[in-house]
Amino acid sequence: MKIAAAGAVLGFGLGGFFDGILLHQILQWHHLLSLVPGMQDLRLQVLWDGYFHAAMYVVALAGLAMVWRNHDRIGRDPRRLLWAPVLIGFGLWHVIDAILSHWVLGIHRIRMDSAVPLLWDIGWLIGFGILPAVAGLYLRGGRGPGHPMGATLAGLVLLTSGMGAWAQRPPPGMALTAVVFREGMSEAQVRARLSEAGAAIVWQDAQQGIAIVDLGGAGGWGLYAKGAVLVAGSALPAGCFSWSRA
């Protein structure tokens, strides 16, 4: 049980990364604290998303360290002692998140803009929580080592890592980009930084440091060096501004 816990901890961390990167950044359906009163400032939402990902780094590193310490014994039956527990841990994250974050604490829902958020919560719980956990339990209870599950874990890791880079891209076909600058920057400073980057301002909220811009086909990576804390596509206002005061 102690050896299997190594894979479960690693899978738990990967589940958190998958959830945070996909839902907070790429799809932008919610942030960690979307429904917490007094957290309507988008900079605070992004900050707490960062704290969440930092915590998942710690969990994943702990899982990797546990796997390394037990790699000799895990290597004798990797299917039961690594791949299966990783799937169980991955599913466990989504089960705990659904119960605790969605329904008990109510700090966010899967789709903030849905008319029936419970359906999205249940669908996500089944697809990414229950099914992976059941698959892991099935593999752990099977007989004989050497089942080719390495590709499954490798694919999961690559998918989670790739989404981190993809999250920085605006949605394809979207001409406008939402940019959030760090707190304390004046309207003049924001305009000057955007002008340096060749961005045309379409709309700006000086109080919150938010601007909707047309980058003219250029990438938005350089804006991070000019004080931006978030560069996202035009899906951001639809997914996040609907509950904010922006």
From TrEMBL:
Top-rank taxon, per record: Bacteria
Key words, A-Z: Membrane, Transmembrane, Transmembrane helix
Pfam family, one: DUF2243
TM region(s), chain numbering: 7-30, 50-69, 81-105, 117-139, 151-167, 223-243
Name of the protein this chain belongs to: DUF2243 domain-containing protein
